[in-house]
Amino acid sequence: MESILLLAHTEADGSLGKPALEALGAAVALGGTLTVGLVGATTQAAADQIAGCGAVRFLAVTGDAFGQSRYATDAAAAEALCRVAGCQIVIAAGSSRWARALPGVAFRLGGRVDTHATGLSAVNGAPALTRWFYRQRMEAVLARTQRPWVVLLDGGCVAPWAGTPGAAVVEEVRVEVPATRTTVTGYRVPEADQQTIRPDAKMLLVAGAGWTKKQSDGAVHAGEAEGLILGFLRRAQASLGSSKSLVDQSGEGEAVLSCLTHMNQIGQTGSTPRHAKGLSTCCHGEEPHVVGWRFVNQRRAINLDAGCGWARGKADVLYVADAFEVMRAVNALLEG
Ligand SMILES: Cc1cc2nc3c(=O)[nH]c(=O)nc-3n(C[C@H](O)[C@H](O)[C@H](O)COP(=O)(O)OP(=O)(O)OC[C@H]3O[C@@H](n4cnc5c(N)ncnc54)[C@H](O)[C@@H]3O)c2cc1C
Predict the structure, then answer these.
(1) 206 and 229 in contact (C-beta within 8 Å)?
(2) Considering the entire predicted model, what is its pTM?
(3) Radius of gyration, alpha carbons of the chain
(4) Among residues 34, 57, 41, which one has the least CA distance to residue 161?
(5) Residue 279 contacts residue 310 (beta carbons within 8 Å)
(6) 204, containing H or E segment
(7) Ligand 1: which of 257, 304, 319 to mutate, most ligand atoms within 8 Å of CB?
């Protein structure tokens, strides 16, 4: 097996996050001589965190300028680490930070980059990656002859490395801080309980357009719908997905759920999240939507219509019922 460089940036507290540990897990499992390259404001704690991973070298680019997510500094640090390590294979988490910087680094090194890898393995002694194409319909196994080969691994596909921490000897790689135009002044993120997209949640709740349609009493109950959905999310700590029809409605001036944006959309033109369980509510289950459920292991749906799309082999369990009634009862059970 060829030599491998695992590139990782530290989090705000100086540790390595789950995506970095997943990339490390993939690198260790691939075999070959492993070097770790760290980037951050401080890096010793991160190196100690993974001291037992079997790496032959721990390299680091350290300094305040490298603690911030910014193309110029991230690319300069990663390029320097790749040159010093001299490894043929470079593996990193597909974080927004690395996804922005590493394609440019691969170009500077005369190598190649592949993004959205879902796994790495040795095929006839050479590394190969798996990734999906055409909105997760086809899985390919890819190998390349160009080196260095930079691979960005998608989150949630590989078990994170879990080993004992220790005391790592870190070799500092000096990098001249490049001229920068971007100053990072801080982060704006929603309050934790307003954040409805939770990739690590065990459960996905999908809301469909039915929540905002006229119900059996001839009236729309969007306000109650929003209360039921948010109540369930809060109690179950689930992630919130939506059908396209529901998130598109805001543009049509119809009743909308204010907790949803296009970021919540699941499907062919939306996202393909990974959760252990999924519950679809008031959503018809059409193919362009259900294709986004590919990596949801157990699928259940609530729909008034016994002939809806979910009934045609797309859900493990279909409850033919009124989602308002069901979710009222489910929330009451969770409360009790
Ligand atoms: C190129 C292309 C790409 C697309 N990409 C996507 C995509 O990425 N994601 C996506 O979602 N769609 C996508 N679509 C659209 C998709 O085909 C469907 O139109 C959409 O998913 C329908 O949304 P829906 O099921 O929420 O709404 P509807 O089809 O209006 O279904 C509403 C459902 O709610 C049920 N219902 C109503 N009231 C209740 C109640 N009280 N209790 C229980 N059930 C109730 C009804 O029986 C009905 O089945 C795409 C379409 C195309 C052409």
Answers:
(1) no
(2) 0.78
(3) 23
(4) 34
(5) no
(6) strand 203-207
(7) 304
